[in-house]
Write a structure and sequence with these properties.
MetI-like fold; 2 domains; 14 helices
């Protein structure tokens, strides 16, 4: 078990390091932030001084080594716009993002899993077909289209809800619904597929043939075995709670990490973009690590296989 956990922790650390490196290199190769922040009309001396002040005049390797060295001490750089620590700017926005993403995550699971189970237990029924039709429509519709559609219906036409801002708790309702519906649709489809696969296994038929009550067969045999692939989807959703809010926060003018990322990319604020990508990567890696741990708990065969690799 210890070897299993250690291998997963090492993989998580290497993944985060790779993301940090990739983001650093790509951002440095995508253009000169001095020309955007200072403008192309700025005197050459001012642009040169800006580059020297922020270390942009050094080679990428020298910049990277300095960045990694400082990162291990908790210093992830400062914003080129206001000089504040980049990680502080990001963490200030995290509560606002969690205020819409955590309820949305709960709705994804709370709506999607029961809908998928019900559809699987009533395969080819009208309920099953209706659930799958709604699911297809839900996860194929782009989030910005869904967001604009909800604004058009509930804010513009009906006038029930505000279209943007974060002045009151009710402002979070439309962003939460926008984030939750596609995820609930995906959860429903994957849960249904996992349940149907398990329900077709010989041990399910054997339990039914022995006279075990169908409710007990489902709760004691089908649901636990269908949980493993479902846990995978939940892990992906937990890990992408921050990344998935980028478009929604922009549409609804919600002051979270996603909106900060859009403005930081537009302003070429490298340290802030790197800090946001680090937070997103950490969330996704932590979620995947939790999924691996859940696998080891749900199925000891997975734990044994991971320890032997």
């Amino acid at each position: 078990m210890l070897l299993f956990v250690a291998s997963r922790l090492l993989r998580a650390a290497l993944t985060i390091l790779f993301v940090m490196t990739f983001a650093f290199v790509v951002l440095r190769l995508s253009g000169d932030p001095a020309l955007l922040i200072m403008s192309v009309d700025a005197p050459p001396e001012a642009i040169k001084a800006f580059r020297q002040a922020w270390g942009l005049d050094r080679s990428i390797l020298e910049q990277y080594l300095a960045y990694i060295t400082h990162a291990f001490t908790g210093d992830f750089g400062k914003s080129m716009r206001d000089g504040r620590p980049a990680i502080d700017l990001v963490m200030e926005r995290v509560p606002a993002t969690l205020a819409i993403t955590l309820p949305a995550l709960a709705l994804k699971i709370g709506l999607g899993v029961p809908a998928g189970i019900h559809a699987a237990l009533h395969r080819n029924s009208l309920t099953d077909r209706l659930t799958m039709a709604i699911s297809v429509a839900g996860f194929t519709m782009p989030s910005f289209v869904l967001a604009l559609l909800l604004v058009l219906i509930f804010a513009v036409t009906l006038g029930w809800l505000p279209a943007s801002g974060a002045d009151a708790p009710i402002n979070a309702l439309l962003p939460i619904v926008t984030l939750s519906l596609p995820g609930a649709a995906i959860m429903a489809r994957f849960t249904r597929s996992a349940m149907l696969e398990v329900l077709g296994q010989p041990y399910i038929r054997a339990a039914s043939a022995k006279g075990v009550a169908w409710r007990r067969v489902v709760s004691r045999h089908a649901l636990p075995n269908a949980a493993i692939p479902t846990v995978t989807i939940v892990g992906f959703m937990v890990g992408s709670v921050v990344a998935g809010a980028v478009i929604v926060e922009s549409v609804f003018a919600w002051p979270g990490v996603g909106r900060l990322m859009v403005s930081a990319v537009a302003n070429r604020d490298l340290a802030v973009v790197q800090a946001i990508l680090l937070v997103i990567a950490t969330c996704m890696v932590s979620a995947n690590l939790a999924v691996d741990m859940a696998y080891g708990w749900l199925d000891p065969r997975v734990r044994g296989a991971g320890a032997t690799r």
